[in-house]
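Protein in question reproduced for absentees:

***
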Amino acid sequence: MDVDVGAAEVGGGGEDASGVLVSFGRQLKRFREWKGLTRAELGAGTGYSAATIASFEQGRRIPPARFIESADEVLGAHGVLRERVDEVERAQYPGFFQGAAKLEAKAVALHVYDNHVVNGLLQTEEYAEAVFRMRRPLLDEDTVAQRVAARLRRQDIFARTPMPTISFVIEEAVFRRPIGGGSVMRGQLEQLLLHAQRRNVEIQVMPLLRAEHAGLAGPFTLIETKEGRRVAYVEAHKESRLFTERSSVRDFEEQYGILRAQALTPSESLALVERLLGET
């Protein structure tokens, strides 16, 4: 059946992100105190400052996997901390995206349609920060920093072996909306051109003056896993859903196929991006 991304089937259920960080922080502090180490001493042993260790223990910052693995060894936790790496890593994403992030990270194919902003997998750090700063209600500074870092980490997918097949259909209006200002948008357009040079990535633009359009219902992502499972992910207003029923996914696949046919070809799309870059 179709499920939301909070369902246990896709790994998004259970404790919310802030709760995961707080409980991990308490656990980290307990192991540190049992070992008789100060925060500065643990920091010296793991390569972090005492202030950063305090942030980890208080659940205000998301500890990276390399820290957790190092801390497990330094504190003699015998794998107790290490086994929470996946859980803590998922906490870097808002709850509604955690299940989809897990699937995305292991996908062999991703096909994405976007109509408001450049997709997170393609965003520069500056563009991503501008996007998160525009959120309403406002996000606090720590949350903005965490969300930007998490978005950039998702882009590790481009360096993965074997390479996944990734395609994007993006509305022309997205490239004409100077989110973050002119310099930020120039950097974003330049990054799009660089990603488009990857052998496993295709970027197509849906032109504004296209009378026929199969994507008027909004953005979505098609994900295929190495097990051959195909799902469709749809997100809106802090709510999301993963469609897993074959009939539902087939509808999205048909829609995406038509979108690609209606959009500019990859070479035409790059020419348009280059022209827009010259205009910024």
User: Anything to note?
Assistant: Residues 17-35 form the longest helix (19 residues). The chain has twelve helices and six strands. Strands lie at 107-114, 165-171, 201-206, 220-225, 230-236, 239-243. Residues 5-15 have pLDDT under 50 and may be disordered.
